[in-house]
Structures are given as C-alpha cells and as structure tokens.
Design a protein that fits this description.
alpha+beta; Four Helix Bundle (Hemerythrin (Met), subunit A); Nonspecific Lipid-transfer Protein, Chain A; 2 domains; five-stranded mixed beta sheet; 50% helix; globular
Length: 254
C-alpha cells in the first residue's frame, strides 16, 4: 500500500491549489506565457486544468467524459474562462465528496490506493503542479521552494505517486543500457526512495538504498517540483547524467 495523505487532506489540497492557480492566472493575464510549459499561455493552462477536472469528475461518477475538443471549445467560448474553471472545480469536489469509500471505477496508475482515494490524490497533485505553472507565469520564472504554499507532507505524497505510480508505467518506464540505481532523499529525514533503471525499464520502492550510482537531495517541496521538471533546486551526487536521463524520460504529458 502506498504512502498517501488522508482523503480530507487531499481534497483540501485540491481546493488550495485551485485557488493558487486561479489567483496567479488572473494576476499574470490569460495571454501571459508559462515558462514551465513551453509553448503554452495561461489560457492554455487554465483550459487544460479545467478539462482534466471534468474528465476526472466523469470518471468518478462512472459516466463517459465529453471529447476533449468539445470541452476545449466550451472553454474558448466561455464569457469568463476563470469562472468556467471554477465551475469544473466545484463539480469535481462535489463528485469526490459524494463518492462512496468503496468506489469501484478504473484507475490508471500503479501501486495505487483504492479508487476514491486514488482519484482525489491524482487531482490534488495534478492541480498543485499546474498551480506552480501559474505561479511561474506570474513570476516569469519557476518559483523557488520557499515560495510554494503546500506542506512538506503533501510534497512527499506527490513524490511517492510520481516514482511508484507513474515512473514504472509502460508509457514512461525510464531505462538505461546498464543497470543503475538512483536514490531520492529529503534532507529533513521525511522520506527516501530508490529507483533502479536497466534495459527492461525501472522499478521504484520506498526507502533510500545505502549505496547508489546517483542521489538527489533537497527539501520535500524542492524535490517535488524538481522531479516534475519545475525547477532544479536540489543537490546531485554521483552520476549526474543518470539523474538527467531519468528526468528526461519521466516528463509527464497529458
């Protein structure tokens, strides 16, 4: 069973991140560029996040989500894009709150908790990462770890989901010609992880191996942002090329 926050804490995390995203999007302006998402403007970011919220809401309710093109057209014609975003957020939170604890719907990540928890967790981190993007649009650069709003426990939870849930999926599954081991360690003793990469892909586990080819160390918030390619505020030891190779292969796209 993966490490994860409580359902209520994850729900609050969604709401907090959505407020940060909305406020920074409004301050930056919808036509501002997003440094952490090359080629995107703020309106693209808001539209994407609103689309993902609607997709997750439909899945939690066990109904078919509308086609992406239909949702994007709805966003493009909305009289106020941020109000449109708010509508999707409220619908998502209502769907999650109404879902039974034993919700039985599909979920796509590995090493996941039960579906209601898993979907709440995924939307918490999806919204948090894109709120960091909205901050970057306002600042004109990636925000520093000390400028981020969320608690280290939420960051730890998100690192756990990324390394154990996303990394080993066939879509990503970073690999190397020769087996190599990367450890990820918070500098406050909060958590550690070990990722082994080889010709057949990667495996990840909680706990930092005593001996590894490379290690990334930083605060939980810095690691969270860094592993999602939203900053490089961490210390590397050992084979730096291994770290770069892993992060390049683990770039999450829609």
């Amino acid at each position: 069973m993966p490490n994860t926050l409580e359902f209520r804490d994850l729900g609050e995390g969604i709401g907090d991140a959505a407020a940060v995203l909305r406020n920074n999007a409004a301050a930056a302006g919808l036509d501002a560029s997003v440094p952490t998402c090359p080629g995107w403007r703020v309106r693209d970011l808001v539209t994407h996040q609103g689309l993902v919220h609607r997709w997750a809401t439909a899945t939690v309710r066990g109904v078919e989500a509308p086609p992406d093109a239909e949702v994007e057209a709805e966003a493009a014609t909305a009289s106020d894009l941020l109000d449109w975003f708010d509508d999707g957020l409220v619908d998502l939170l209502n769907a999650l709150a109404a879902a039974p604890a034993d919700l039985d719907v599909p979920f796509f990540l590995l090493d996941a908790p039960p579906p209601r928890q898993a979907w709440t967790r995924r939307q918490c981190h999806e919204t948090t990462i894109h709120a960091i993007d909205a901050m970057a649009a306002k600042l004109g650069r990636s925000p520093r770890p000390d400028e981020l709003w969320f608690a280290p426990a939420l960051a730890r939870d998100g690192i756990d989901e990324l390394l154990l849930g996303f990394a080993p999926r066939a879509k990503y599954n970073p690999r190397r010609p020769e087996q190599a081991t990367l450890t990820v360690v918070t500098d406050d003793g909060l958590a550690g992880w070990t990722v082994t990469m080889g010709p057949d892909g990667c495996q990840a586990s909680t706990g930092a191996a005593a001996d590894s080819d490379a290690q990334i160390t930083a605060s939980a918030r810095a690691l969270y942002a860094g592993l999602w390619n939203r900053g490089r505020d961490y210390t590397m030891a050992g084979d730096a090329a291994l770290v770069e190779d892993f992060l390049d292969q683990l770039r999450i796209t829609w």
